[in-house]
Amino acid sequence: MTYVVEFSNDMADSVLFKRAFHWYGSAIKSMRIVKEETISPNLIVAKGEMDLLMPAEGKEPQAKAFRLKYSMESRIDGNKITTKIFRFNVQNTIYSPIEPWIKEQDEDYLKKFYLLFIEDKSQEILSSFKEFVNVTIYRN
After folding, report:
1. How many C-beta atoms lie closer than 10 Å to residue 66's C-beta?
2. What is the DSSP letter of 23?
3. Fold of 3-55+62-133
4. How many Å apart are CA 117 and CA 55, to the nearest integer?
5. Is 71 exposed, middle or buried (0-12, 13-18, 19+ CB in 10 A)?
6. What is the DSSP string of 70-132?
7. Which residue from 2, 19, 50, 90 has the fewest beta carbons nearer than 10 Å?
């Protein structure tokens, strides 16, 4: 499973990189930068975590199913930014890929629920990134 957002902006790559780097450091508490490429200052690689919630039952709040870890990468090249979320792992006693875990679920509705939940949260993260980095400042 991989989720991608790609957009262009007229600002210099260095400005886009600084904005992206700032977003990674401040937007999501669990996000930590793994590697900031120094040879090519146009790549940011990070790891993040989120709670994978179970379906709601009645008026009870949704219970946490597992902790979900993921990798995130942003590449800036010629005013074009490509950001992807990938490599999802579920934490039980160890971290293991999410795809086999989802296939093990007994009910079809659980499989669909978890896939939609992950997609929704991933798109939310990518939208937040795009809104933060892709802001144009106008000067009069």
Report:
1. 17
2. H
3. Alpha-D-Glucose-1,6-Bisphosphate; Chain A, domain 4 (3.30.530)
4. 10
5. middle
6. EEEEEEEETTEEEEEEEEEEEESSSEEEHHHHHHT-SSHHHHHHHHHHHHHHHHHHHHHHHHH
7. 2
Is the separation of the CB atoms in 130 and 84 below 8 Å? no
60-85 confidence digits (pLDDT tens): 888 888 889 999 999 998 889 999 99
Cα angle for residues 132, 51, 1 (degrees, 5° grid) = 70
Quote the tokens at residue 53.
């919630």
Q: Are 31 and 21 in contact (CB under 8 A)?
A: no
Element (H, E) at 44: strand 43-53
Output the pLDDT for position 137. 65
d(CA 108, CA 88): 20
3-state class of 59 per DSSP? coil
Q: What is the pLDDT of residues 90-126, one digit of tens each?
A: 876 566 788 887 888 778 888 888 899 999 999 999 9
Q: How does DSSP assign 121-132, residue by residue? A: HHHHHHHHHHHH
Tokens coding 137 = 């400042």
